[in-house]
């Protein structure tokens, strides 16, 4: 592990996993990314609820919140800002794809430093590129933050320019799915729209929070099938995830947005 | 690890991987399954060639054959029959989907016992069910034996009846892709047909060998988009992978086949 990282596996401070873990063998597990601010994991209950819901969709039993909280207690204190990754795999089993009837999941909590650019981009707006890779629509995995993320890896490999902050992903049917690491919202005609996650994408906690915040502003919030044109036509475009919170989009390919008012307002409301 | 398993990671006999390995984080890697018979790994050069080709498609540098052979040398001897799994991951990196510019891959060789039914089913024929899960067509990953195998896991979870030996997978466009853990061939009108792997599936070494063997029999061998109807209509249906070698299909849903002549012939020719 990099020196800036630290992990707790099943309650023990170790930096290794059994080589036969099905997460390593098949990507058979789920995860969540949690921002830590002022020593506190943000949106903790929501994150655990989403992790548990995702695990249930794969029939992986999710440990109760107090187990995760005990794990957190094992991480060294005194690091007020950072990123947690919570991973839950189906654990070990016999050879082959068939899972064990009663899995013994492995639980991993990893800490790493928060890259410095997240809050800066939130202020100035993100530069976004359109990815060439199109996601394959899979209703059985849509919305789940599972460990099968090769599509995201391949999409992220499309650019190395550090001036580009995120990539926009479409699926093979031409629907907008979201960012490589984020959910997408567009604001148009008084409505806040975000892609339906029936065929792909991840149901992020920041997405839930953004929708709730917009409803408190009395905006109409709707999940829809979005086209690339609808994104270009939007008055404002924004990206959300637990680290970004809300990023206004300043540029997508050659389209530039100067108005970020709603993005900034939602960002301020996200914790309420 | 189960007591019947044993692993060599980067040349050392250990049973753990770094928790930050991208194989564990994202399924960012490839693997191959190799049958060991009379103490010899079958089709060894072909397996390494396929592993290397798959790794190249994901831009993961693959170690030279002699490294894998040294790993094999670390496994305890005296086990003439078994199964090897060769896994190559992109190794560790910084947080997030973006891979390191110069990855240091992790190399894992794991040994496990060969389940007893493989050769028995080859003689009697396999009973196969049609899976409800439909694969999502993804040309960028098609053919690669990568670590993103949740679709296979979910498909394999559809049945627990040990009298069912394999599941047949279609994609969301209605094309036959193959078995959950195997490639499929149908014999009809003097032609041996197998699904094209342009949208999904794994290009197995046993598939290559079966095609080569059939050509030595002067059969026409063709990759094609196959429908479920074409499978039901076939004179013979067979499944291949490195452990099965060639399994004749005796039953798919309610369709029964009594003729397995070509399957048995190909099976005998597979090592030539």
The overall strand count of chain A is: 15
- Uncertain ranges of chain A: none
Which chain pair has the greatest contact? A-B, 62 and 62 residues
**Could you say which structural class the secondary elements and strand pairing of chain A correspond to?**
alpha+beta
Q: What would the principal axes of the Cα set say about the shape of chain A? A: globular
Strand content of chain A: 25-35%
What average pLDDT do the residues of chain A reach? 95
> How many H/I helical runs of chain A?
8
SSE pattern of chain A, N- to C-terminal: EEHEEHHEEHEHEEEEHEHEEEH
This entry's quaternary arrangement is: homodimer
Largest sheet of chain A: 9 strands, mixed
Helix content of chain A: 25-40%
Give the terminus-to-terminus CA distance of chain A.
Answer: 36 Å
Radius of gyration of chain A: 19 Å
Describe, in plain words, how this protein is organized in 3D.
Two copies of one chain form a homodimer. Chain A is built from eight helices and 15 strands. With 272 residues, chain A is an alpha+beta fold. Chain A has helices at residues 22-26, 44-57, 65-74, 117-124, 150-156, 205-216, 228-233, 261-269, and strands at 6-9, 16-18, 29-37, 40-41, 82-89, 106-112, 126-135, 166-171, 176-179, 183-188, 191-195, 220-224, 236-241, 245-252, 255-256. The model of chain A has no long low-confidence stretch (mean pLDDT 95). In chain A, strands 7, 8, 9, 10, 11, 12, 13, 14 and 15 form a nine-stranded mixed β-sheet that branches. Chain A has a five-stranded antiparallel β-sheet with strand order 1-6-5-3-4. In chain A, strand 13 and strand 14 (245-252) form a beta hairpin.
């Amino acid at each position: 592990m990099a020196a800036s990282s630290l992990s707790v596996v099943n309650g023990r401070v170790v930096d290794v996993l059994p080589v036969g873990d099905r997460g390593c063998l098949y990507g058979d597990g789920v995860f969540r990314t949690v921002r830590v601010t002022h020593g506190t994991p943000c949106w903790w209950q929501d994150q655990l609820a989403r992790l548990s819901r995702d695990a249930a969709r794969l029939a992986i039993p999710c440990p109760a919140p107090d187990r995760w909280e005990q794990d957190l207690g094992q991480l060294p204190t005194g690091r007020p800002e950072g990123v947690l990754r919570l991973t839950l795999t189906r654990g070990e089993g016999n050879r082959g794809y068939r899972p064990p009837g009663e899995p013994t999941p492995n639980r991993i909590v990893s800490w790493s430093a928060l890259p410095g650019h997240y809050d800066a981009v939130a202020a100035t707006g993100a530069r976004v590129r359109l990815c060439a890779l199109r996601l394959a629509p899979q209703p059985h995995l849509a919305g789940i933050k599972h460990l099968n993320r090769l599509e995201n890896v391949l999409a992220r490999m499309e650019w190395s320019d550090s001036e580009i902050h995120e990539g926009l992903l479409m699926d093979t049917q031409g629907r907008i799915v979201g960012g490589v690491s984020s959910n997408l919202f567009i604001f148009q005609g008084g409505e806040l729209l975000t892609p339906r996650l029936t065929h792909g994408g991840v149901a992020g906690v920041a997405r839930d929070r953004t929708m709730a915040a917009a409803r408190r502003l009395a905006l109409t919030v709707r999940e829809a099938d979005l086209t690339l044109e609808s994104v270009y036509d939007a008055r404002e475009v924004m990206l959300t995830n637990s680290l970004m919170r809300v990023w206004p989009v300043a540029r997508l390919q050659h389209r530039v947005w100067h108005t970020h008012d709603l993005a900034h307002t939602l960002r301020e409301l996200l914790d309420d």
